[in-house]
Amino acid sequence: MSLYLFQALNGIGLGMIYFLISVGLTIIFGLLNFVNFAHGAYYLLGSYLCFTLVSLTGSFWLALVIAPVVVAMLAWVTEKTLIRRAYHLPHTFHILITLGIALIIQELSIAIWGPIGKTVAVPDALSGVISIGDFFYPKYRLFVILFTAVIALALWLLLERTRFGALVRAGSEDAQTVSLLGTHIHKLFALTFALGVGLAGLAGVLAAPIRGVHPFIGPEVLGLAFVVVVIGGMGSFSGALVGGLVVGLVQSLMTTLWPQGASLMIYGAMAVVILLRPYGLFGRA
Predict the structure, then answer these.
(1) Which H or E element spans position 278?
(2) Which of 3, 169, 180, 268 has its CA 20 to 30 A from that of 67?
(3) Whole-angstrom distance between the N-terminal and C-terminal Cα of the chain?
(4) Which segments cross the bilayer (predicted)?
């Protein structure tokens, strides 16, 4: 029983990281109607920035603050100089442009940090385990669960209780009307793109001490993010949260029950959702 509880908590932690990645993807698509295939590459960049900052300063907490901000700023610049010019183009162009960005980030990562994976140490304050009777669980993984839950709450408040969130939600319905009402729509687009990508960078930082860093993880993360979005429903905050937890729990529990089929069962869960609810658990037509 302790093993399954351990794996369930691991699944929740992974699921919350997947939520951070996929909610940025779904926010960008919901407002901008833009398919960002570079999302996994920005996660990769967040992980490598974490590794560099920890190596230089010895502080994981500094990396947790700085790395996502740097990734978000890079995304903001990319949106203003390149992405903005492609909004009116068909989705095939979005895919080609963002795949190009992803390849550039991946190859630059190999050129700067090398093709060999890196490890990031768990911060001293979170090393070790917490014991509850006969049950032991790593402090850092518990921190990830609690920290991402706080981020999820803050993000929900931002989207549901602020003017910015109201504009994002209204813009996802009709961006042209929001623009006609006096909103600087290009500024809103740039901030939304930076927020979504910054969340992917934050996920990369949090996952670095757990899964390490290597330059080819971007496509894997992107694939998982799309699975989460398909399960939860495109454009849905709740869908990204529930979809992330479903994928994380399935992946973690199946690692114990059927290790060879853990990845297969993720896509099996997605197939079941598509058959029953083609637009996802919380998606709209």
Answers:
(1) none
(2) 169
(3) 41
(4) 12-35, 41-74, 95-116, 140-159, 188-210, 222-250, 262-282
